[in-house]
Amino acid sequence: MASSARKGGVSLPDKRNPKSGGGGGGFGSSIISRISESQIVATGKRAAGDATFVTKKLLKSTGKAAWIAGTTFLVLVVPLIIEMDREQQLNELELQQASLLGTPPVGQK
């Protein structure tokens, strides 16, 4: 008995008869159904779907490019900046030592 109840499924009311619908009368629902099934609405939905697809692809590729640029910066540029800072500190230290010892700085005579 329980298996026979599962076989049938659910039947929905027929939407083609505007008078049998429960919401808003036959005239209002007919206009709304005609508008929602029109070619302009279908084209608009298709355009919105295409725009969404392109936007998702663009964001995904932009994210990949940002990841590549960020990791490249961390691997190549940050060590270079650190090394340049060390070199500048070493030059300043040499200038300080030279001024304490009384010798003229390198490059001046």
Structural account:
With 109 residues, the chain is an all-alpha fold. It has a domain of 73 residues. It is 75% helix and 0% strand. It contains 3 helices and no strands. The chain is rod-shaped and about 100 Å long.
Brief summary:
The chain has 3 helices and no strands. It has helices at residues 2-8, 25-36, 39-101.
Pattern of helices and strands: HHH
Q: From the helix content, strand content and strand pairing, which structural class follows?
A: mainly alpha
Mean pLDDT: 79
> Into which percentage range does the β-strand content fall?
under 5%
What is the makeup of the main sheet?
Answer: none
Proportion in helices: over 70%
The total of helices stands at 3
Question: What is the terminal separation in angstroms?
Answer: 111 Å
- The shape is rod-shaped
Total strand segments:
0
Which consecutive residue ranges, at least 5 long each, have pLDDT under 50? Answer: 20-24
Question: Rg from C-alpha positions?
Answer: 38 Å
Pfam families: Tom22
GO biological process, one term: intracellular protein transport
Membrane topology: Single-pass membrane protein
Keywords: Membrane, Mitochondrion, Mitochondrion outer membrane, Protein transport, Receptor, Translocation, Transmembrane, Transmembrane helix, Transport
Can you lay out the helices and strands and say which pair or pack?
Layout: H1 2-8, H2 25-36, H3 39-101
List keywords for this structure.
109 residues, mainly alpha, rod-shaped
